[in-house]
Structure formats: structure tokens, C-alpha cells
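Anyone? Bumping this.
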Amino acid sequence: MDPQLRSQIHEAMVRLAEGDRAAFSFVFDELWPRVLRFVERALPGRPEAEDLAQQALLKLFARISEFDTSRDGVAWAFGIVAYEIRTLRRQEQRRREIPPDAAFDRLADRAQSPETRAIQEDLARALAAAIGQLSPADRALLLGNETGPVGLPNASALRKRRQRAMERLRTAWRRLHA
Amino acid sequence: MRDVTRLRKQAKSAYEVSRVRVAIRAGVFVIPLTVLCARETGAVAECAAIGGALLVLAVILRWWRREGADAVSAGLRIGVIPMAAALGVCRFAPHWPAHAAAVVCATAGLLAGLVVGYAMMEPAHRRAGHWLAVGLVACGTAALGCVGLGLATAAGGIIGATAGTAAMSGVRMKA
């Protein structure tokens, strides 16, 4: 998201939280399509994705009066949406619901539930996208090249380089998926 | 796909309902104060009327703006001091003449308006409307306790709280 737009949405959310009803339309018009896209990406091809997006949006507006305006409004909003998605997945895991097309393909593999596999595949794709944002040197350090690109002799220096590479990975993750 | 217009209305409704739900929490303070005053003073009908009006005012202020919640909080803190002074007179000096009780309430209200108003107000709260809201809630709270000693005492508490809050608002708005 464009940082300026993100800042505008945050400002509008702050005004709405403080009681300025004129900010409602802007917040709704900017958040609704983004929330819907976010949920559809998290639940691809699922018919309940739009219902969940609407439910998450209504909860967001029900809680915005108590929103801590010192925090980032957009991150707060998508935190609520992500929570709704996780809740749905946990409920499905408890009920052991399996999408019909996955059931026949996975019957032979009893080691993991289809839900767990789907979650792991999503996470792997998201992680690959974040790692793709790093420099070749950082990728080599994180993916198991023991000495790094220039054969660092000092173990503590290597450890520090890895720590910094992990920080950059976290930053890339937040940028892509927050 | 559901109609976005309908979703917009539902979102607006969810927003307003949540604001009302948050605003109603003012009752957590106002109702016990009203019950306490009715018990201590014996003026049940008067306390119920004033407490009811104070509750409605507090809910409306809190529902309309988040700044209204600050005004209600400040007003309650200011008004509770003359209210407590009046309840003290009711309990420990019930035979005091009415004008003495009115002076106690007025003095307590004035001091409360000055001291608590100064301590609580942030520089951002400089609009006259904010101070008016603070003053109204303070007067209502002061009257809640003082009414048990008679209308003159209630008036004394209101005048004191108003004067203290007005004086402090003048200082703050010029600062």
C-alpha cells in the first residue's frame, strides 16, 4: 500500500474513533475492498470468503471507537481480519471439515490433516516471498551456507550477520504480509 | 455478492451501537453516586431526578465525541468534591443552618473547579464547548450531594463548581 494512502487511512480512522462521523465514508471505501482481497487471498476459491470479510469489517467498525490512536490503524484493522481468518481455520480444524476436492486426493496421506498442510503451504509461500526480497548474501546466510558468501572466519561475526539478516527478513515479512 | 450499500449501513450501525455501548459505561459511576446520595440524604426523588439527568448528559457527551468522555471524567471529578462535602455535612453536622451548608458546598465546588480543573485539563482541550460540558457535569454531580441539604445548598454547590471551572477554563485557554 502506498505510504501516503496508508497515512491518510490512519488519520481518517483516528478521526472516526474520536467521533468525527464525516470520516466514516472514506474509511469504509478504502478498507472494504482491501479487506475483501486480503480474505480472498487467505481463503482462495472458498465461497465463505466474502461472508468472512463482511463479518470482519463489521467487527472492525464495532471496535473502532476503542481503537488506540497511538497505534497504526491499518495494521490494527488487518489484525482483526487476520484473527477472524485464524478463528475460522481453528473451527474447521476442530470440526475436521475437509474441502471436497482435497478429500479424495489426500485420503492416502494420514500423517497430516489437509488443514495443517494447507496452512503450511501458505506459510511456505509467504516465507519464500519474503526471502526473495533479501539480498543474495542474506539468503545464503539464512539458507544454511555455513560460512556466508565471503567465508567469514569469526563465529561471532557470522552469528551477528545472521541476526541482522533475520531482522531484514522480519522487516520484509511485515512489509509484505502485515 | 451482497449489496455494498447495505453493508455500509450495517457498518455505520455497528459503529454507532458500539459508541452507545461505550457511552453507557458512564452509569458505572453515576448510578452508584446517585444511590449513595439518596441513601445519605434521604432526598430520594430529588437525587433520582438529578442523577437521571446527569446520566443522560454523560451518555450523550460520551457517545458524541471521545473528547466528551474526557469532559465527563473531569466534570465528575470536580463535582464529586462538593458532593462529598455535602454528604459530610449531612452525616456529621445535620443541624447546621442552611446558609452554612451552602457556603461549604460553594467553597468545595470552587476549590474543586480550580484545583482539579487545572490538574486534569490537557492543552488540547481549549474549546469553550469542552469546558461547558465539564461545567455541566460538575454542576450536576455537585447538585447530587448538595440537594439533600436543600435547594439553596445545591445552588451553592453549582455556583461554586461553575465559578471554579470557569476560572480554570479562562486560565487554560489563555495559556
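Late reply, but here is one note on the structure posted above: The CA atoms of residues 94 and 134 of chain B lie 30 Å apart.
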